[in-house]
Amino acid sequence: MPNRRVTVNSHTRVMPLKTFAIICRWCGNRATVESYPGRPPTLCSSECAIEARKDHDRRRKAAKKAGQPAPRAAVVAPIALPQRFVLWPSQVDRTLDRSLLGPFGTGLLGTLKTKADGRQVLGILDSLLAESWAVTVRWVVLECVRREPEALTARLAVALTPDPLRKEVQWQREVDDLRSQMIGQGRLNRSQRDQLRALGADVSNHVVGVQMRGLGEEEALTATQRVVAERELAAALVQLEALDG
User: Fold this and answer.
1) What pLDDT shows up at residue 218?
2) Does 70 reside within a domain?
3) Of 73, 44, 39, whose CA–CA distance to 56 is shortest?
4) d(C-alpha 244, C-alpha 238), whole Å
5) Closest Cα partner for 76 from 54, 46, 45, 52?
6) DSSP 3-state assignment of 187?
7) What is the rounded CA–CA span in Å between residue 182 and residue 179?
8) What domain range is 20 assigned to?
9) What pLDDT does 164 receive?
């Protein structure tokens, strides 16, 4: 635990500092702040503290002129974060889809030989398909926040509605069918290799394509839009986790 040396009236004392994970009540961002033990801090930086104080003073003076008590400082409610899914497209781990394709056919799909290789590819496809729904939800939220906020509720309701006709559901059936052919040892036949390569490319290209669209929207957000998007993403992904069990 870090410490801070404090001197009061020639008396020196080493005070232990505690690390707090907070959501700043001024800017709304998550931050890690070191402070003395006790009540957790509510502001993430000196800049936010200055702006929050200016805002409070303005509101206090306005209330005084109107003969009313000074309003309390606004407090941003904590965000309930998803447990399984990351919040932003930029936080997504691309290791799995890159391992499938690789440069110049060096990925797993280009070097398929045995049933063990096939089982490894199917395991990766399971993970990509589980992430695909979250990738779509992120893109819908970010596109709406940036381009058409009034459409967010309707589009998100569609994105969060389970649909047996979704591509991901059909691909999952193909994965399950192929898994029954990967039992035991031995080499893959030509038909099995072709099926695995076609399915792997379809799933990977779809997930990466939607992921890149979401990343583009994230990078184009203004600071104000980012604060709104963070709350909408958290709420939508928490809801998705409840649906996806």
Assistant:
1) 95
2) no
3) 73
4) 10
5) 52
6) strand
7) 5
8) 3-65
9) 87
Q: What pLDDT is stored for residue 243 in this prediction? A: 83
Domain count, the chain: 2
- Do 118 and 109 meet the contact criterion of CB atoms below 8 Å apart? no
Q: Are residues 122 and 201 in the same domain?
A: yes
At 170 the pLDDT is: 93
The residue to which tokens 């691309």 are assigned: 94
In a domain, 36, yes or no: yes
Q: What letter represents residue 113's amino acid?
A: K
Interatomic CA distance for residues 245 and 241, integer angstroms: 6
pLDDT at 73 over 80: no
Distance CA 183, CA 53 (A): 66
User: How buried is residue 195: exposed, middle or buried, by Cβ count under 10 Å (0-12/13-18/19+)?
Assistant: middle
Model confidence pLDDT, tens digit, residues 94-148: 888 888 887 766 789 989 999 999 999 999 999 999 899 999 999 999 999 999 9
| Per-residue pLDDT at 6 | 46
Concatenating the DSSP letter of every residue in 170-181 gives HHHHHHHHHHTT
Stated pTM of the model: 0.65
Closest by alpha carbon to 198, among 165, 176, 171? 171
Neighbours of 212 (CB within 10 A): 13
Structure tokens at 11: 């008396």
For residues 12 and 226, what is the distance between their CA atoms, to the nearest angstrom?
44
| Distance (Å) of CA 79 to CA 22, 37, 70, 145 | 10, 23, 27, 17
Asked whether the beta carbons of 184 and 119 are under 8 A apart, the reply is: no
31-59: pLDDT as tens digits: 888 776 667 788 888 888 888 888 888 87
